[in-house]
Amino acid sequence: MESTETSFTFSELSISAPLLRAISEIGYETPSPIQAASIPHLLAGHDLLGQAQTGTGKTAAFALPILNAVDLNRREPQALVLTPTRELALQVAEAFQSYARHLRDFHILPIYGGQSMDVQLRQLRRGAHIIVGTPGRVMDHLRRESLNLDGLRTLVLDEADEMLKMGFIDDVEWILEHTPPKRQIALFSATMPEAIRKVAKRHLRDPKEARIEAKTATVEAISQRYWLVSGAHKLDALTRILEVEDFDAMIIFVRTKVATEELAEKLSARGYSAAALNGDLSQALREKAVERLKKKSLDILVATDVAARGLDVERISHVVNYDIPYDTEAYVHRIGRTGRAGRKGEAILFVAPREKRMLGAIEKATRQRIREMHLPSQQDIADRRVEQFRELVMSTLENEELSFYSNFVQHLAKEQKLTALDLAAALTFLAQKERPLLPALKPPASELSHDRGDAKTPRAPRRERPEQAGGEPRENRRREKGGDEEGVLYRLEVGRNDGVTPREIVGAIANEAGIPGRFIGHIKLYDEFSTVTLPADTTKQALKKLEKTWIMGKPIQIRLWADEKAGPSVSIRKPRKKAVSPE
Ligand code: AMP
């Protein structure tokens, strides 16, 4: 059994330089416990039985050793990852792709039911180093001999208990029996029911075990709530919470160094005094940030686990787990930053539906129920603003010398033949212009989920500035970017039928062309292609790189939308709803 403490760094693991570089760019600071417990065994070629759920970092635990061993000159499947759902297959493929960003000509192919067989056959013929797929479809291809696993070195069963629950276990066994006998197997499962143990016993050779232990801890002084991430974007949810929560100082936990900076920047842009705290900052800078928090010149620190270790500031009233921690121990450390010196503390946890198992584990470990919370409504926010404004007015009346201003109002009223009430209304409006007492109603939460604007209406893409395409959330994004630049529309030859989502497109453009995500504008997905708005000043060099970029195993063949001679030549079907379905 492995300990849950992560005592070493990524560079101490023997993984190749291009992978270390990618990890550092993505912003991981240290291996998560399951990574620390799994990676050395997998690198040494052992079979592995890993007990870990979503959110623990298990994908990198198997992806990094696989990528470390991949022979890029051999374009045949060297690793196969089986996942219970198409959604997970895509996520895993995306994770591999991001770790492999510095591996030249690396190809990974997700295959799952529901996707056009023709497309898959074509992609399989082109070849890939790694296949990620759902059991049914992988079996189909093995039977048709369109997938050849003779060169397979590693097989991963991801979320094996889910595959069992969904009735795929016979398919999984069939696949195991149709792979070369000497391949390495890594089996990951959140729970270890008997049927999974049996599979492990039958197929794994002398496996090493890696698991995350759940220790219990008391956190009585801290009241815990969670918000089930649904509909609204996490940033939007956080801003609403910040509006109504009565907080003194707050620590917000995210997973990566990059995320600390991005989120701190976004909160600052919204008027909060926020700063990032991560392992890249020198000790002196970290101390300075903590000092500022103590002295109240800073109210919010956005931190990684490592950077916030041991932080002891009495005025921290709230801990927000913006990204769920990878284990219960990290959670207990995080929320222990509040409720200090006999005070009460509040902990808020954002949980995505697929992370609910971790929520259960946390409740068990802290032996406390975590209450579900709902996002403050627009009315709640309005009430709170009114209340704060009232307090401000009353304390101004009490504490300031206002005779000059009274004279001014009196004079203006007389001159313009207005009542003092009219003037007070206008001045209230002006005083709260940036923070209206009656905030504009945003679209219902469900519409906010399309962060990068999955198209909702079956209109042909036009040359348009991203912010003209929709409602308020997009306008917010533009403001966030702080730019007013004109965008140019491009067409990419990957679409929904290839399983692409806006995230892959942003990832590929950011990585290949070095265009930061915040400058990548509106993305629309269609069945056969997609469109993206890029800054008008995108360099030729960046475009050249994009011309050679592949996403989801396909060259994207980027070109100007305006170059489409006859305008939209493809019949544009209504974009399908994103389905999250097995197989
Ligand atoms: P997973 O459990 O594989 O679904 O990973 C959950 C999330 O944790 C993903 O967003 C990963 O990018 C992130 N993650 C994985 N490993 C690390 C790490 N060592 N440091 C920070 N974040 C990580």
Automatic annotation (TrEMBL):
The keyword Cytoplasm applies. It is an enzyme of class 3 (hydrolase). Residues 441-486 are annotated as: Disordered. Keywords: ATP-binding, Cytoplasm, Helicase, Hydrolase, Nucleotide-binding, RNA-binding, Stress response. It catalyses: ATP + H2O = ADP + phosphate + H(+). SUPFAM superfamilies: P-loop containing nucleoside triphosphate hydrolases. Its main location: cytoplasm. Belongs to the DEAD box helicase family. DeaD/CsdA subfamily. This is ATP-dependent RNA helicase DeaD. It comes from Candidatus Methylospira mobilis. The lineage of its organism: Bacteria, Pseudomonadati, Pseudomonadota, Gammaproteobacteria, Methylococcales.
